[in-house]
């Protein structure tokens, strides 16, 4: 299916995740605007949809949730099936709140598509792109972590089938 989504592109953070957001006690600061370190400088300077950063944060929520489940040395393997529904619920709601807040704040901005289907397509694309990037990273540097991006890819595919990203 050929589809063109016309939105304004802008410079983005490029490596937006929970560790890049600092709470000062009164406010939040976003740090480290250099972009994804493994991406060439020319690509990091290119303009993109800000939804790419939204997808980066959603992916970070996924990592926070699933890493705590699968990579916690204190967790017993028999507890996974008990804890998994709570992890999925937390991830579903925190992602939903984040997307809704972002879209409510940026409503009518030229960098946000006018219809929900286009937003869905962009978010799914950026989420899958980030998950595949992370899978490659984990395969090269932290083999015992590959379960996290694999779960992310599976989740994106399942949500796509149900039309549930946003």
Would you mind describing this structure in some detail?
The chain is globular. Helix content is 56%, strand content 4%. It has a domain at 49-162: Aminoglycoside 3'-phosphotransferase, Chain: A, domain 2, CATH 3.90.1200.10. By secondary structure, the chain is mainly alpha-helical. The longest helix has 26 residues, at 80-105. The protein has helices at 41-45, 51-70, 80-105, 116-141, 147-162; strands at 21-23, 28-30.
In the CATH scheme, the class of the domain at 49-162 would be Alpha Beta
Query: Which geometry do the CA atoms define?
Result: globular
Strand order of the largest sheet: 1-2
Name the helicity range: 55-70%
Based on CA atoms alone, the radius of gyration comes out at 16 Å
How many individual β-strands?
2
Mean pLDDT across all amino acids: 90
Spatial separation of the terminal alpha carbons = 21 Å
Largest sheet: 2 strands, antiparallel
CATH superfamily of the domain at 49-162: Aminoglycoside phosphotransferase (APH), C-terminal lobe
Structural class of the secondary elements?
A: mainly alpha
CATH architecture field of the domain at 49-162: Alpha-Beta Complex
Protein name: Aminoglycoside phosphotransferase domain-containing protein
Organism: Adineta steineri
């Amino acid at each position: 299916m050929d589809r063109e989504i016309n939105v304004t592109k802008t410079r983005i953070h490029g490596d937006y995740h929970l560790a890049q957001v600092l709470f000062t006690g009164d406010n939040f600061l976003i740090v480290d605007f250099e972009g994804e370190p493994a991406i060439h400088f020319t690509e990091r300077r290119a303009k993109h949809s800000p939804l790419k950063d939204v997808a980066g944060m959603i992916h970070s929520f996924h990592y926070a949730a699933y890493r705590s489940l699968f990579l916690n040395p204190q967790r017993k393997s028999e507890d996974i099936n008990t804890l998994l529904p709570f992890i999925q619920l937390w991830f579903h709601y925190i992602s939903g709140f984040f997307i809704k807040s972002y879209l409510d704040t940026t409503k009518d901005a030229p960098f946000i598509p006018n219809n929900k289907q286009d937003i869905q397509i962009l978010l799914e694309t950026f989420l899958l792109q980030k998950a595949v990037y992370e899978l490659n990273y984990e395969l090269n540097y932290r083999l015992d972590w590959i379960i996290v991006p694999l779960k992310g890819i599976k989740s994106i595919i399942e949500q796509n089938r149900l039309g549930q990203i946003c």
